[in-house]
Structures are given as structure tokens and as C-alpha cells.
Amino acid sequence: MSKAVLDSYYAALRAGDFATLETLLTPGITVRYFGPPGLLPWVGVHEGFAAYRRFLGLVRDALDIVEVVQEAVVAEGDWVVVLGRGRWRAKGTGRDIAVSMTNAFRFEGGRIAEYRVYTDTAAFAALLS
Q: In which order are the strands placed within the sheet that holds 79-90?
């Protein structure tokens, strides 16, 4: 794992730089956003770069990233877990939310092959309602 890859990933994510994201992810990238089905439009499994783009589009249509802070990064084998916190703003209401999050990344060949998101989905659902 390279901290530089994760730093580049988060920077490209904030900027909406899909060209850079595509170089950092494997073509078969799998995103797993955990939560009750239907609670948020992006909950579920998204496989492949096109599905990854749709996933991000759903999030970006609803939320602006105000701040994301990495508090700890733990690596074991092909996995890297980022513990952090962030603040997002709902585009529809202008309201903000601050929540903790855990992002888990699995690497293959120096690129991100799997991205798992664990956060307070109920708080996001309340923000968007």
C-alpha cells in the first residue's frame, strides 16, 4: 500500500477528477456501501468503473464534501483501513452533517480493487429528508 495512492485518491475524489481516479482503481473496482437497502440511493454493491462513476454521481448529486479528515491509517496485507471523520452538506437543504467513517481499501498491483464504506447511514438519510 502506498499512502501516496490514498492521498491521490482522496484528492481526486474531492476534485471529481475521474481521469486520475481511473488510473488509481482497477477496471473491476468494487464499491460496497453498507446500509439498509433503499435507505440511501447509493447503498449497495457497485462493480466496475462505470458503476463506480454512477455511485459517485448519486452521492455528488445529493452531497457536497465540506471536510474529510483521516485520523488513522492501518495496513495489513492487501488491505488498508482509514478511520476518519467528515462533514457533508446536503445540496437540497443546505444543512450539514458531521459523522465518523471507516473506509477499507483492498489493493491489487498497487491500485485500489475494492472500496468499502462504513458510516452512519441513518444520519445521512435524516440529512437528506
A: 44-47, 25-33, 111-119, 96-108, 79-90, 63-76
